């Protein structure tokens, strides 16, 4: 499938180019968050500089939860980037697939607080359209006049990647000609921060926010909670060529598996993550040795990084592809992560540059045999790249991307 448009709304920047430049700089955005003052961990990676009144078209954007606002802004950029005009397309042949781990959890928390402290009369009549997880996809369809399949995917932190794989399957099955797909989440809330902290998942370097998120480093102790959205426009390669669309890269393959092991911990031997990688490569018509780059899930938690590194070592050997994790810069954007990182992988393939992994200094015994890019962005020939995503519940989703000039992909 051809990737003809990219849209990003992340803690690294408002828009694709600003995000890419900050990711390539390797400068973390994590900071102490006053809105989390009552939570056990007060660090977050928030999207700053975003004003829905100026970054969104249409009336009354305040009606939407923040996760929907992010999705609409990222999708708008992606559609413009693809040189598509929603006023001129056949909406019945356009699909939307958006993933989210939690939907409008911020709106839910706010309205529940009003119910508990003030009473029924204080609860907004817009509560349900704000927090229901499908509403980002539904609102995007309303705004752009889309009448094809409109779906929400929920595979925790793999949700955005699942959305992209689902969109590719819709295109393969001729259910649509254009798919606007990705993920969005805004889980930087007191309840979510407290829950993740209680589960032992969050980094706790309160005295060093910028150094808190440390993917693959020996001193890693968890992730930093983030937010944002990533959206791609996908089309069949032949259709993109026929309309002379700008093609950034090809989604050449995808794979999805489930550990069926534990609610929140990865299966230690990484068996099913490995199988997801192999599925993606098989669909791309590629071999292990063809992979030049891995955009890792790389959360900075002890278990995830150890397991993922072992899988990469098993698949590619000790002299394997260049590996990076964007979470060192932008934290963990939850259900948006798979789509945000897919977009960054597209840019890596297009620009032949692998961004660095922020805060990676010293590997441990479990992460020492993979080539983690650090310090500075690395110019590199990337003919095939994979982006890994994993989620609570044991979900594993892998996307494979190739340059637009290659024959791989559909």
TrEMBL record:
Family: Belongs to the thiolase-like superfamily. Beta-ketoacyl-ACP synthases family.
Entry's transmembrane regions: none
Keyword NAD part of the UniProt annotation: no
InterPro entries: Beta-ketoacyl_synthase, Ketoacyl_synth_AS, Ketoacyl_synth_C, Ketoacyl_synth_N, PKS_Beta-ketoAc_synthase_dom, Thiolase-like
Keywords: Acyltransferase, Transferase
Domain Ketosynthase family 3 (KS3) intervals: 1-403
Protein's recorded name: Beta-ketoacyl-[acyl-carrier-protein] synthase family protein
